[in-house]
């Protein structure tokens, strides 16, 4: 269950008559517990409670219902119960149907409220449903409840008005929902005259059968689009001319294009009217625009509605972008200013000219958070200068965005308007906030369109009025000129966001065409991730000034993407000035797709200070290369052969057979039982899964002189016939194997031994899995192989040094290592100082690793290389191998992976430079 579904179930539970015996089970059911689980708890089979009316679910919660007035004592009994601790309960909960109390035993957070109000605190219990929460999400209970009800209303309205679900009218429907959200917020924050004005008016003026609900709402919308003043004075002529009824005349003029144009409203059923009133009765003062925006956009998106309630904005993650991009600099300037009035004034004026631009803004989360953070800094400036109630100098129009879809674009603008009002209330007071709020500014600073086709310079021009030197009075000129920014020509522009990733294999024709607009000369865009378009466009923009930082998948700084994407940016005279290493960008919700992300900030190459961030620390470095590693800017390109003295690594054998050349253990056994003469045609075969997990699999391996034998065995002949038919219907290249359907497309084998390297392996392992196979074992195309190479090559593959290199330059599949012979092996630099003695030492290390594994037979590679269970003798063999290899590079063992990469990139640059020369 997702958070919205849980909220709905909890709300329904709170509305039912309280059943003391049934409540604990109904509560657990609301959080997704299955019927079989509840049955065991009811029977007592899994109920570990030692209290008379208690229900204790191990590792989750201990619940007790009690007599009226006894909640305090019941909660105390739960807390002191030995079973609570023994069963490792996360929560305790006590209720008598009138009062409700609960406690998170891990954090100490408590809830004490009426029973009817407990759904407002459901976020505390989300871990019961496997939803890992952060404090921000628990505080966003309102946003989840509001989204839940808006979703119900939206679905009900589309059911009653199917024409509004068509492509022609969907924009009208979305615009209608944006208007409703504004009305709900405005009626609870005194923007309208009187609390609950909109909901109360609809409830009183529309018929209970809902027959005229749409007319009532439409007239309210028309009133808010009709002026009430002329030359600053009240003027009733506008409303009279518009035919505004007296009951609608109490609504203020809103303008801002929010209620202009079409005021058509979908028809309401009784159910839809009830939903509308229910939504209006929520407390909309609690809306959190930086969270609510991304959640509400899911209401109007057919694809996203299935994941409703999972659209929490991770504010800490967004600040990982905004802080190093520019907010840290503003805070440092504030700290430096202290109580110096002139410095504070210049900082405030500087902030008034800062533009924040998100060219993939969605529902505006980055812009809202940036705005709120800047208002907080500005408020501190005003406080220090004695201007606490001063009107903000930071205009909303400086927070600009582009969004492909129309509804998120509207929600982004609405979220910014709400954020501005909330900030005014916090920093200036309710009275001043209301005085300046209406009418809304009609400028549209969120553009709806394809960001890769629009002119960013036109939408967010870098030129603007300068901020000149400021003095404390009309006549004084400060003598200490160094304390003041003389000029801030054109202000500052910071581009940020989380553009769409979309790997090259998943892009539509239109998206490929978007990328082709950036093609110049031999620039190849065929294999480029879609997000590269934003990096290139932002790079071109900041040639006129500014910086940018985007959240991205880590693929753009790995493997073949690096030489495709980054030279274009470096050619613009720019460099990476900060980067955040791999972290999970997710919404902290169950079943929410977690994406391994990085953050990359780019500025003019002259930017002096550069930082690499991780979740644990920040490190200042001299330079950041496109692999997000400290060191010189180097780009590793594919190599067709090793640049070092290494054996040739091949991709495994490609069957191209629709599975007909491959045999399971049972199939191989049956074939040999029925046709013993087939034995010479069957060989073991390994790919990544077989090698790592110790699985047995076989293949038909048939040479030209064995073809007649193969065709004489009926089940083999049948398989070969299917292969020929499959290849016949394939591509022109595939038809090359029609005359030899008994052969793999690629057939390479060793005479002495084969070093096997899986193509994909877990990032949890401290070393790449690799092994030595006898010559009769075939390697499939799901692994790579070095045939008959000296054994010291295995020592290299198995080293920590090589793992670090592969992790940086090969790219990853999700978070797993994805090995490539052309990127990882052929480019791996080994010092030319490697001697025959060094090779002999590495050979001994490889043998020791193999012997250490052998001592634990029949454990699999997966079992042996589990970081928590790796045998001591195997770990010691690897550590010895690392030390011997690394001494060849610097005469000692490297201190850490950062030092390893720096040395490898340095050596790669020298070796490829010599080769090119």
Largest beta-sheet details: 9 strands, mixed
User: How much helix is in the residues?
Assistant: 40-55%
Question: What's the pLDDT, averaged over the residues?
Answer: 86
The number of helical segments is: 34
Give the total of beta strands.
27
List keywords for this structure.
917 residues, 9-stranded mixed β-sheet, 5-stranded mixed β-sheet, 34 helices, single chain, alpha/beta
Describe this structure in words.
With 917 residues, the chain is α/β, with parallel strands linked by helices. The protein is built from 34 helices and 27 strands. The strands form six sheets. A nine-stranded mixed beta sheet has the order 10-9-8-11-12-14-13-15-16, sandwiched between helices. A hairpin with a 3-residue loop joins β1 (54-57) and β2. α9 packs antiparallel against α12. The longest helix has 23 residues, at 315-337. The radius of gyration is 33 Å and the shape is globular. It starts with a helix and ends with a helix. The model is unreliable at 305-312, 464-489 and 587-593 (pLDDT under 50).
What's the gist of this structure?
The two termini are 62 Å apart.
How would the blueprint of this fold be written?
Elements: H1 3-15, H2 23-30, H3 35-43, E1 54-57, E2 61-65, H4 71-80, H5 82-86, E3 91-95, E4 99-104, E5 110-114, H6 135-138, H7 141-160, H8 170-188, H9 197-205, H10 213-224, E6 229-230, E7 233-234, H11 237-241, H12 270-280, H13 289-296, H14 302-305, H15 315-337, H16 341-352, E8 354-358, H17 365-385, E9 399-403, H18 406-427, H19 430-437, E10 446-448, H20 456-459, E11 492-497, H21 509-516, H22 532-541, E12 547-553, H23 561-570, E13 574-585, E14 595-604, E15 610-613, E16 618-621, E17 649-651, E18 662-663, H24 665-674, E19 682-686, H25 688-693, E20 698-700, H26 707-711, H27 714-728, E21 754-758, E22 760-761, E23 771-773, E24 778-779, E25 783-787, H28 792-797, H29 800-809, E26 812-813, E27 816-818, H30 821-825, H31 836-854, H32 861-864, H33 872-890, H34 897-916
Helix pairs in contact: 1-2, 1-7, 7-12, 7-13, 8-18, 9-10, 9-12, 13-17, 13-18, 15-16, 15-17, 16-17, 17-18, 18-19, 29-34, 31-33
């Amino acid at each position: 269950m997702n958070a919205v579904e849980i909220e709905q179930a909890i709300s329904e539970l709170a509305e039912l008559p309280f059943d003391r015996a049934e409540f604990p089970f109904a509560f657990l059911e609301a959080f997704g517990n299955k019927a079989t689980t509840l049955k065991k708890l009811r029977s007592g089979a899994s109920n570990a409670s030692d209290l008379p009316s208690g229900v204790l679910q191990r590792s989750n919660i201990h619940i007790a219902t009690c007599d009226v007035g006894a909640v305090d004592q019941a909660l105390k009994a739960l807390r002191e119960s030995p079973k609570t601790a023994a069963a490792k309960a996360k929560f305790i909960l006590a209720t008598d149907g009138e009062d409700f109390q609960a406690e998170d035993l891990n954090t100490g957070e408590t809830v004490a409220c009426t029973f009817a109000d407990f759904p407002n605190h459901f976020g505390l219990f989300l871990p019961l449903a496997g939803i890992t929460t952060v404090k921000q999400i628990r505080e966003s209970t309102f946003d989840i409840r509001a989204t839940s009800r808006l979703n119900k209303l939206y679905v009900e309205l589309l059911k009653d008005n199917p024409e509004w679900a068509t492509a022609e009218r969907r924009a009208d429907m979305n615009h209608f929902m944006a208007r409703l959200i504004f009305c709900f917020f405005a009626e609870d924050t005194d923007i309208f005259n009187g609390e609950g004005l909109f909901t109360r008016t609809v409830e009183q003026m529309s018929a209970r059968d809902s027959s005229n609900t749409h007319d009532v709402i439409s007239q309210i919308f028309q009133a808010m689009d009709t002026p009430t003043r002329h030359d600053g004075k009240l003027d009733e002529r506008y409303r009279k001319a518009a035919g505004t009824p007296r009951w609608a005349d109490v609504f203020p003029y809103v303008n801002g294009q929010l209620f202009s144009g079409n005021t058509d409203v979908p028809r309401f059923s009784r159910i839809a009217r009830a939903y509308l009133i229910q939504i209006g009765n929520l407390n909309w003062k609690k809306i959190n625009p930086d969270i609510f925006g991304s959640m509400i956009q899911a209401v109007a998106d057919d694809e996203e509605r299935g994941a409703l309630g999972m659209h929490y904005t991770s504010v800490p993650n967004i600040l990982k972008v905004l802080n190093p991009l520019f907010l840290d600099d503003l805070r440092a300037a504030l700290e430096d200013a202290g109580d110096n009035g002139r410095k504070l004034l210049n900082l405030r004026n500087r902030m008034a000219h800062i533009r924040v631009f998100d060219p993939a803004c969605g529902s505006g989360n980055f812009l809202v958070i940036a705005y709120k953070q800047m208002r907080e800094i500005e408020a501190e400036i005003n406080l220090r200068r004695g201007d606490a109630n001063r009107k903000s100098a930071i205009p909303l129009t400086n927070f600009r965005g582009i969004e492909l879809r129309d509804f998120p674009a509207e929600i982004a603008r609405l979220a910014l308007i709400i954020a501005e009002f909330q900030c005014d209330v916090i920093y200036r007071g309710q009275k001043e906030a209301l005085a300046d709020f209406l009418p809304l500014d009609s400028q549209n600073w969120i553009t709806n369109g394809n960001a890769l086709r629009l002119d960013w310079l036109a939408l967010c021009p870098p030129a603007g009025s300068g901020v000149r030197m400021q003095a404390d009075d009309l006549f004084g000129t400060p003598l200490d000129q160094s304390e003041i920014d003389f000029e801030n020509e054109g202000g500052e522009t910071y581009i940020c966001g989380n553009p769409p990733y979309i790997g090259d294999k998943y892009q539509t024709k239109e998206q490929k065409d978007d990328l082709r607009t950036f093609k110049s000369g031999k620039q190849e865009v065929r294999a480029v991730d879609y997000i590269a378009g934003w990096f290139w466009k932002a790079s071109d923009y900041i040639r006129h000034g500014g910086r940018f930082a985007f959240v991205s998948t880590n693929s753009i700084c790995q493997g073949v993407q690096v030489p495709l994407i980054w030279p274009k940016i470096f050619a613009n005279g720019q460099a990476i000035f900060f980067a955040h290493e791999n972290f999970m960008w997710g919404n902290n919700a169950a079943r929410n797709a977690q994406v391994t992300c990085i953050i990359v900030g780019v500025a003019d190459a002259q930017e002096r200070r550069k930082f690499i961030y991780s979740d644990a620390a920040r490190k200042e470095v001299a330079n950041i290369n496109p692999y997000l590693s400290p060191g010189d800017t180097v780009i590793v390109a594919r190599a067709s052969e090793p640049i070092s003295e290494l054996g040739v690594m091949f991709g495994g054998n490609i069957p191209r057979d629709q599975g007909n050349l491959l045999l399971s253990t049972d199939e191989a056994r049956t074939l040999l039982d029925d046709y013993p003469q087939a034995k010479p045609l069957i060989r073991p075969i390994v790919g990544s899964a077989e090698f790592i997990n110790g699985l047995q699999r076989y293949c038909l391996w048939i040479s030209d002189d064995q073809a007649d034998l193969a065709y004489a065995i009926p089940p083999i002949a049948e398989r070969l016939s299917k292969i020929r038919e499959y290849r016949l219907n394939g591509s022109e290249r595939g038809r090359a194997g029609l005359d030899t359907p008994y052969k793999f497309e690629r057939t390479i084998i060793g005479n002495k031994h084969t070093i096997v390297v899986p193509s994909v392996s877990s990032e949890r392992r401290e070393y790449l899995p690799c092994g030595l196979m006898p010559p009769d074992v075939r390697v499939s195309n799901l692994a790579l192989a070095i045939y008959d190479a000296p054994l010291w090559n295995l020592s290299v593959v198995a080293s920590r040094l090589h793992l670090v290199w592969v992790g940086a330059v090969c790219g990853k599949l999700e978070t797993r290592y994805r090995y490539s012979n052309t990127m990882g092996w052929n480019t791996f630099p080994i010092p030319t100082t490697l001697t025959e003695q060094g090779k002999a030492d590495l050979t001994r290390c490889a043998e020791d690793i193999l012997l250490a594994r052998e001592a634990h037979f029949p454990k699999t590679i997966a079992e042996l290389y589990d970081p928590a269970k790796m045998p001591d003798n195997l770990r010691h063999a690897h550590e010895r191998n690392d030390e011997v290899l690394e001494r060849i590079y610097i005469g000692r063992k490297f201190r850490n992976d950062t030092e390893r990469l720096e040395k490898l990139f340095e050596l790669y640059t020298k070796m490829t430079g010599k080769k090119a020369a």
